[in-house]
């Protein structure tokens, strides 16, 4: 059963002002309360989703030595492969029971970014891997831009406020493999409790179970969407920018009961980041006497760097 509100992107895109406003209200209210929704009628087709799963399962099935060829030193895990157990939740010492891949932004010629992004890493063994990954990347980006448009309206700024910052943004598509659990995990979990770093996260694959969300009253609840829905949550950058109006909710992926340890889990989050030069300063629309400015000014680039150090992906 899904415990998080379900919203329909077709309402937002319907051209009917009342349906559009209904979507804006439902989404905004959900993000002030639980911080998560599931979303139907996004831009990813079933065919593309199946194709992507086929490619990522084939990649994770390669020998560890082959996969490690794609784990490139000095990139802070921002592109290519990140091996099992390397990343840990902020403040936790045990590594998560997962390995993953990162596809990153391929900016347009005229992007005029403050810093170049690293190149994507090309998997030679699988000729369709990169093409399929980037197709999904584009569709998730398009979905995310529409969600941000709805949030801009909810906050009371121009509908296209986020467009410039999200276009050519430093977003990452992260296919994750949680392998079968073969021994007592000793305190390690599939994904330790954390808030996401970015503006919003669009997650494919949560319908297989395991994702839990920490409700305001301190209860962990399961978030299990319909198979064709994406789970979309607010990350720390948007929480900060909206001065805690929209909530970046703590979530985790729990280990299954012992009789299901033999089942792997795959999920595919798209972490939607803005350009590094976006200022995350609290928006004036979200600051008033009851809600004084809660965070110092910072750019998205500076904030990301801090967090990558805290989760073990870059040393310094
Ligand atoms: O695997 C999942 O369902 C969620 C993963 C997640 O929360 C993350 O990678 O930030
Ligand atoms: Fe997460």
TrEMBL record:
It comes from Patiriisocius marinus. GO terms for molecular function: metal ion binding; oxidoreductase activity. It holds the Pfam family 2OG-FeII_Oxy. The keyword Phosphoprotein does not apply. This is Flavonol synthase. InterPro entries: DIOX_N, IPNS-like_FE2OG_OXY, IPNS-like_sf, Oxoglu/Fe-dep_dioxygenase_dom. Residues 168-274 form the Fe2OG dioxygenase domain. Belongs to the iron/ascorbate-dependent oxidoreductase family. Keywords: Iron, Metal-binding, Oxidoreductase. PROSITE patterns: FE2OG_OXY (PS51471).
């Amino acid at each position: 059963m899904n415990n998080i509100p379900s919203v329909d992107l077709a309402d937002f895109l319907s051209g009917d002002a009342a349906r559009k406003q209904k979507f804006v209200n439902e989404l905004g209210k959900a993000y002030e309360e639980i911080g998560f929704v599931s979303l139907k009628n996004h831009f990813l087709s079933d065919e593309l989703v199946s194709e992507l799963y086929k490619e990522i399962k084939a990649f994770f099935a390669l020998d560890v030595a082959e996969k490690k060829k794609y784990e490139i030193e000095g990139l802070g895990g921002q592109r290519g492969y990140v091996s099992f157990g390397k990343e840990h939740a902020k403040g936790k010492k045990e590594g998560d029971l997962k390995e993953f891949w990162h596809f990153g932004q391929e900016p347009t010629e005229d992007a005029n970014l403050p810093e170049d992004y690293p190149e994507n890493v090309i998997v030679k063994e699988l000729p369709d891997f990169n093409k399929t990954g980037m197709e999904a990347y584009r569709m998730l980006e398009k979905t995310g831009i529409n969600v941000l448009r709805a949030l801009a309206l909810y906050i009371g700024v121009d509908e296209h406020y986020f467009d410039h910052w999200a276009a050519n943004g430093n977003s990452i598509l992260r296919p994750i493999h949680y392998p079968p659990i073969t021994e007592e995990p000793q305190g390690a979990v599939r994904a330790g409790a954390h808030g996401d770093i970015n503006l919003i996260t669009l997650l494919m694959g949560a319908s297989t179970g395991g994702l839990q969300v920490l409700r305001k009253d301190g209860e962990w609840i399961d978030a299990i969407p319909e198979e064709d829905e994406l789970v979309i949550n607010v990350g720390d950058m948007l929480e900060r920018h909206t001065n805690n109006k929209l909530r970046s909710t703590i979530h985790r992926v729990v280990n299954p009961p012992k009789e299901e340890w033999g089942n792997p889990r795959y999920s595919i989050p798209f972490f939607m980041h803005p350009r590094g030069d976006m200022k995350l300063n609290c928006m004036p629309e979200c600051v008033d006497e009851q809600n004084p400015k809660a965070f110092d000014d910072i750019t998205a680039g500076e904030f990301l760097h801090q967090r990558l150090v805290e989760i073990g992906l870059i040393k310094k």
